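Final report, closing paragraph on structural work. Over the funding period we assembled a curated collection of sequence-structure pairs, and we close with a single example.
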Amino acid sequence: MGRSGCGKGTQVALLQTFLATKDETPILHVESGPMFRDFILGEKFTNKHSREIYDNDDLQPSFLGCFMWSKALLEQATGNEHIIFDGVARTLVEAKVLETAFEFYGITKTFVINLEVTREWSEKRLLARGRADDASLEKIDKRLNWFEEDTMKAIEYYEKSPDYEYVAINGEQTIEKVHDAVRAFVEPLLSKTAK
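Its predicted structure, as stored:
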């Protein structure tokens, strides 16, 4: 988890490579951002309405966020993989629904990595990235606003809950240093969860 531009995608890719060196367990990577970007291209009523929300840089409703990762789990989960959620959950409601999925699948312990970056750092990174949805500071600020208003509630929930192993990592370091911190958090947990 973390603000837009904090490097979640980069760190997920590095984490997948690291996990592959530890065992041969398959990895299911669930990332809601690309799912939404594909979804809004559809021509049905819900797709079009979701596109309006996206074009206005507003937060998609929790039921759609839950639909995205639920669909990925329903279609791809085998019960024998590492599951990495990237940018999930975006709201407290979504976090609590996700918890019911963990219960359903018998996942008794989950690990939350929060890549912490300042708002200013995120703004600079997003403007430099040059993606279509990062075209202006006004667009970026709307996303950062809903992160602070909505996603932070989910992060605080994970941080305070005894059901989650939570760590906050300084995301403003080099990619390598962030990855080292992620590995330092994850590696001891792998032995705890080994079957």
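The chain has a mean pLDDT of 93. The beta strands are 27-31, 82-86, 110-116, 164-170. We thank the funder for supporting this effort.
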